[in-house]
Amino acid sequence: MVNSIRVLVATSLLCALTSSFAAKEPLPVDAWLKTDIVGASLSHDGTYLGVLREDQDREGHRIVWVYTFDEKGTLVLHRRINSENMRIGGFTWLSDTQFIMGLRQQVRNRIDGFNQGVYKGRSQIVDLAKDEFVPLPIENPGIEHLLPKQPTKIIVSEDQGGSRGGRRQIGGGSFWHSYYEFDLSTMRKKLLLKAKYALQSVRFDIDGNPEFAIGFDLDSLEQVYKYRPERDNPTWVEFGRSHIDSFESFVPVGTDPTAPHREYVVAHNGEDKRALWSYDKQKRAFSERVYGRTDVDVLGTINHSNSLMHYGDVVAVTTLKERVEYEYFPEYEVERAIHAQFANLIDNPFSPRVVSVSRDGQSMVVRNSGPKSAPSFYLFRQGQFNFLGTIAPDVSSDDLSETTYIEYPSRDGLTIPGYITTPVHSEPPYPLVVMPHGGPFVTEGIGFDPWAQLLANNGYMVLQPQYRGSHNYGLDFYKSAFIEKSEAGYGMQDDKDDGALYLVEQGLVDPDRMAMFGWSYGGYAALVASMRTPQIYQCAVAGAAVSDPIMQVNYYRYSIPGAAKVEQLNTWTDAFSPFREVANINVPLFIIHGDNDQRVPVDHSRKLIKRLKDLGIEHKYLEIKGIDHFSNTMERSHLKQFYSALLEYLATDCGPEGL
């Protein structure tokens, strides 16, 4: 009977994923390189629309296109704003006529140590009314509050970490900040709160008064949570503590509107899964479990889309499984209805979100992104809903593949979640690329993943396993990767292989055409995969990989406290070491690394390559000039080099005849 059920499940999954197909040539690599719109938002009064676009003529440059509207509501270009020597990372409107741009510039040719990259950021305010460009005189600024009742002022924070790069880890992993009132008319700042251990992170009310803070007690090694019961009284009152050795979450996210003396908190509170709780600050106790699930954690909450008129209003709880789900509070039914209405107007909607709203709520920018839709932007204004553009103009929904949530058993009895992206223009059994996420202790969501889509468009099924240690599936699942012994290269690796074998069992994957490709920790996993016995893969592609776990953990061994230290040292001190086991490589191996990688320095790959050469082990190595560890440093030329090499290797060099 059990076997019959398994056959039925396998047949159902196979049918669901292969109902129809039509052969079609893959897109050329260049189609995946062209980027157009990467962001869009409205000025506070809705007079201007700012659109951030890639400069098609100059690699690495972006332009803010500022539009106004004619009497018919048609977009009229007002001006284009660029930065000659710096890349615009993003922009935020500060008022009706002013916005701030985040800029990035390469300031040296080599990294200056671990987490000390070659890029430096700065911020610049653009004033359209005065036609002025003013640098913000604050290091590593954060826009904390737009102060809607004071349109010429904002509250900004300045990182006061104190170490090189402006950051120093303290307490429970927080960074401390000073807070300033910044006058947009005079471009001057006034200190509101000075950074100190006892007051590291502060939240302000609608009028700009401090109402909540997180500090750190150096004697007890506890995070301390405080609030001000009376707006006009500067006295802080403690309402909770969390020790740095605790693995449980306690994350205040906003005031409970049903009782101002209570705080919404995303926390475990002794349970395996994170939930949203109402916490009584006066009684210093949990009052009510507002929302939670037994299968996944609560990710967090979202605030009202119109933050200018509904500042700080928590409107929904978010969870993630088959997709990001939003559970709205009854009093914010209008917010739910607005998003549902927009979903009905969009092709291939996948949790579309309002990302910008004018003060009067009559104009909105909506962003949609999902497996069948590259990030795209829409404008709602004067009752009209129009498409603005997409990040990937040469990639249509017909070229994209569905991504599906699955679960499968591990060999030691755990249930492992995963996502599979299924080629749309071919039929099973597919060649498979197992693509584990980096981290490893992170949450991987479902959405538009350009790497998975690139591979699927070229005929590969992609498995993204949520191996043990991944966040979102409870404390026990997370801690099982390290709390008793390190599972890095062992149980965590089994989880990836078991996913591949499960797909073979379902009839979806050809067992003789499987590979592993990953970046960062995923690259480490690919190195491990190349050395396993019995071997189920035809090749491995390791990007920005940790080859020597001890070398990596030594970069930060003495700078991490509490639970984070247990997590990292337990994981990496006894992890499987690809560098030590390099002689056991038994399949073709392709190693890729950026020469400016600050998180996993390129020395990991260089010393591994030397060892491979000394042992006479065949391999391929690509060192990409100018990129850091993170994808936002990969320009078009970098991506073309990377994508072309990856696809060529899989097609021709992966196994005896290519994958």
Describe, in plain words, how this protein is organized in 3D:
Among the domains are: 137-246, no CATH class; 406-653, Alpha/Beta hydrolase fold, catalytic domain (Rossmann fold), CATH 3.40.50. The protein is built from ten helices and 35 strands. By secondary structure, it is of the alpha+beta class. The longest helix has 18 residues, at 636-653. The strands form eight sheets. An eight-stranded mixed β-sheet has the order 28-29-31-30-32-33-34-35, sandwiched between helices. A four-stranded antiparallel β-sheet has the order 1-2-3-4, with no helix packed on it. Strands 5-6-7-8 form a four-stranded antiparallel β-sheet, with no helix packed on it.
Q: Classify the helix fraction into a percent range.
A: 10-25%
Number of extended strands: 35
Please give the CATH architecture of the domain at 406-653: 3-Layer(aba) Sandwich
How large is the count of helical segments?
10
Rg computed from alpha carbons, rounded to a whole number of angstroms: 26 Å
CATH topology of the domain at 406-653: Rossmann fold
Any idea what the shape is? globular
Please identify the oligomeric state. Answer: single chain
N- and C-termini, Cα separation: 36 Å
**Class based on secondary structure composition and strand pairing:** alpha+beta
Low-confidence stretches: 1-12, 162-174
Beta content comes to 25-35%
Arrangement of strands in the largest sheet: 28-29-31-30-32-33-34-35
CATH class of the domain at 406-653: Alpha Beta
Largest sheet: 8 strands, mixed
Overall pLDDT? 91
The H-level CATH homologous superfamily of the domain at 406-653, spelled out, is Alpha/Beta hydrolase fold, catalytic domain
